[in-house]
Amino acid sequence: MDRVNATTPSASSADDPARATFAALRSPEGEQLLAELRDHDPADELATATRLRRTHPAELVSAALGQARLRQRAAVKFGAEDAYRMYFTPNGVEQATRTSVAAHRAARFAGLGVRSVADLCCGIGGDAIALARAGISVLAVDRDPLTAEVARANAEVLGLGELIEVRCADVTEIDTAPYDAVFVDPARRGGRGRIFDPEAYSPPLSWAATAALQAPRAALKIAPGIPHEAIGPEAEAEWISDGGDVKEAVLWYGEGFAPGSFRATLLPSGATLSAHAPLPAPPVGPVGRYLYEPDGAVIRAHLVADLVERCGGRLVDETIAYITSDEPYSSPYVAGYGITDELPFSMKRLKALLRERQIGVLTVKKRGSAVEPEELRRRMKLSGPGSATVFLTRVAGAPTMLIGHPLG
Ligand SMILES: C[S@@+](CC[C@H](N)C(=O)[O-])C[C@H]1O[C@@H](n2cnc3c(N)ncnc32)[C@H](O)[C@@H]1O
């Protein structure tokens, strides 16, 4: 990989207050403040600030408290060990890829022999760090000077400075030819919050797709809600969930990926399911003894029909992603429930049934129902030692309540 000198648009941070504050945070005094704030209780922030201001400049104390808050938020994505060594900006922590997902993506690249990646739109470095930890050399590019500086600091404090080179530039000016692969994670948030139009991303999705097609291999991070029609036939589309929540989608291009296929990957297990869409419509039929709730990544990837076939079951309604069967079925892609009751939707009947069975803990799940779970639970006035799960859904078009218990 060609080594490229790190550049910054302005010669020093002195004329940029945000970067000057960041430089102060990285001074020995700033580091000491951050270390003191490692375990501070956010509820005591005012008292902590007052105490620290007696011995440190007020501006530095505010910056350290702000950074401590960001680190606390970032721990969810990066784990406490990394988060409390790293630096963040509010946008940077919000938009960064969580470690589990970034590591999965980096492992796919590394598994195909990718040794160098141009990370276009690196933010504070969430993906660049995972790529480097997979042994890949990274050119990490962001046009925001403070963000680029934070990414550089993160590479350094995590001992990845040799593998990650940060450049402050516009990604549209980068020559990606020397790299084995390109990764693009466009900004999907603007001044007014989340951006839904892919052409309003920065850079626009069409630019990112063109850059991806020009590279030997590429990955584009996209919103999980992307319509399937918007995905070109050259891409393999993968939806990734972590702990049951869909986190993101990624489009893969180049040798080693499967153009036109749709994949669901579940973390932390790494279980992965894929098919060339579209699959034939699954059968629909009456509710059996078991109900299966597919993982969100499977639903987003339109792979529910595959699971219906695997478990020999059917959908409860052609528009609802609940699978039912008469035999128990175990799979990482579904949460299974034994069903004890099927009733037409009625708050009154549900309340009577829950009272009769002494259900004190009720889990409410819904698909195709407008009822608010919290409101329903409040109206049930639950009491008793028992627990149950109620599914508010439609069965053959009719609003229905299914009551049951998790399997296993
Ligand atoms: C979604 S964030 C990247 C997050 C990153 N993958 C991570 O895990 O930390 C997008 C970044 O793109 C940067 N950006 C947007 N447009 C850009 C452009 N034209 N050139 C360079 N960077 C750009 C923004 O400053 C922002 O930091």
Strand ordering within the main sheet: 3-2-1-4-7-9-8-10-11
Q: Quickly give the CATH architecture of the largest domain.
A: 3-Layer(aba) Sandwich
Small molecules (ligands, ions, cofactors) in the structure: S-adenosylmethionine
- Overall mean confidence score, pLDDT: 93
CATH H-tier superfamily of the largest domain: Vaccinia Virus protein VP39
Given helix and strand content, the structural type is: alpha/beta
Question: Tally the helices: what do you get?
Answer: 14
DSSP strand tally: 18
Structurally, how many domains make up the residues?
3
Q: In CATH terms, what is the fold-level topology of the largest domain?
A: Rossmann fold
CATH class of the largest domain: Alpha Beta
| Major beta-sheet overview | 9 strands, mixed
How far is the N terminus from the C terminus? 51 Å
Helix content: 25-40%
Cα-atom radius of gyration? 25 Å
Shape by Cα distribution: globular
Beta-sheet strand percentage? 25-35%
Verbal overview:
The protein has 408 residues and is an alpha/beta fold. The chain has 3 domains: 27-86; 95-275, 3-Layer(aba) Sandwich (Rossmann fold), CATH 3.40.50; 290-406. It is built from 14 helices and 18 strands. The protein is globular. The chain binds S-adenosylmethionine.
